[in-house]
Amino acid sequence: MTKSTRLKRAYVETYGCQMNISDGELMEGILANDGFEIVEAPEDADVVLVNTCAIREHAENRVLGRVAQLNGLKRERPDLVIGVTGCMAQRMGETLFERAPYVDLVMGPDGYRGLPDALENLEGYRSDRGSNSRIRGPQLAILDLSLGENYQGLEQRRTEGPTAWIPIQRGCNHRCTFCIVPYVRGPEKNRNPLEILNEVRDLTSRGVTEVTLLGQTVNSYTSMDLSFPNLLSEVARVEGIRRVRFTSPHPNDVTPELVEVMATEPAVCEHLHLPAQSGNNRTLKRMLRRYSVEVLLEKVELVRAEIPEIALSTDIIVAFPGETDEEFRDTLELMRTVRFDEAFTYKYSAREGTPATRLPADEFIPMPEAQVRLEELIEVSRGIQAEINAREIGRIDEVLIERVGRYPGQILGRTRRNKVVAFDGDSERIGCYTHVGLERTTGATFAGKETSQPELVGQS
Ligand code: 5AD
Are 450 and 441 contacting, i.e. CB atoms less than 8 angstroms apart? Predict the structure, then answer.
């Protein structure tokens, strides 16, 4: 199975969204299958892959800083291969070699099947020239976007634990004018539902009890006559699965059928991420979000009517080009009307190649003004979150213990409604379910006390 003769140890460092984390696991799976040892630090690796995000300029700048830092390792070990993969690799393409000449490999999100071959090519070239020559090159860029690549049949390398990400869809058919994703991940590609269900079953046999279905607009999934609500209920019914989540949905595909499945399948968690982006109709139109504030509010009402316990989170962009102060106030108004449990808030970041960058130059909002709007939005959304969470004190919730806390003896769990709770307990119990009384909140997270003995999972 091992093709490579010298490159043996690989380290993958991931930035960005859950889809990227999942892609990192996929790359590790592909490399492990090719005979690579996956290591936990760049110092121990022959190949370092930085798996990147392109959603905002800030994310890209962080990566450029990081690869410059990794070049320090390469100076000590000229043989070290540095690869940049994922969305930023796709967006920047070969220009990345100009910005960071020490990068050997640039590979977009559809190229990972070819990862072993690409590394072998790089290695072959090096051994021809002798490993000590500080030659730059060859530099390989693999940037083809595919209409069909959904990595069917490949296995991810997952860290052991009670939760797992399941990619069910790649790419996106929307064209939100601010967003780079369709240009770096191509059109929507859905995975075969039978393979997805097999994967879920296999994961339960390894102790996984919670899965999160992933896709860019996850609820537009359709394959083999199965809609997203159909798939969701199938996954929820897999024996051994206690919790199912999904992210990120598009509001337009939050249909009565989907809400019905969420309300009736006991395993589907009472949490919905509903990216609003703005609370103003003119801005939503110019973002090409394809819904109005009124439609969004109807979706919220529908979900709350069927699932009274539901916790809602959202994404908001402030200072989209041309957004007036009044239009921004509409977003604040939306926040006060809906009262989201959590909001992820961003300043608009111009992404080359996206339609919004072609708006008139004088519509772009200066950074200081965008910053003021962002801070006001954060203040409002954090205030609402703190009020909501303060009212939850006294509740007893089921939590899945996920990881160790910040202090010795402290563990962290997550409720079905996606709230994080810290409490005293033994780290050996990661993966167990228990009940915790919520006693205090920082506003965003909780501290509590266990009220029952945890049951062992995966034993039935
Ligand atoms: N600028 C700022 N935020 C963006 N997002 C997507 N593209 C941009 C951009 N160009 C935000 C959206 C999306 C989240 C993942 O990132 O709110 O839902």
Answer: no
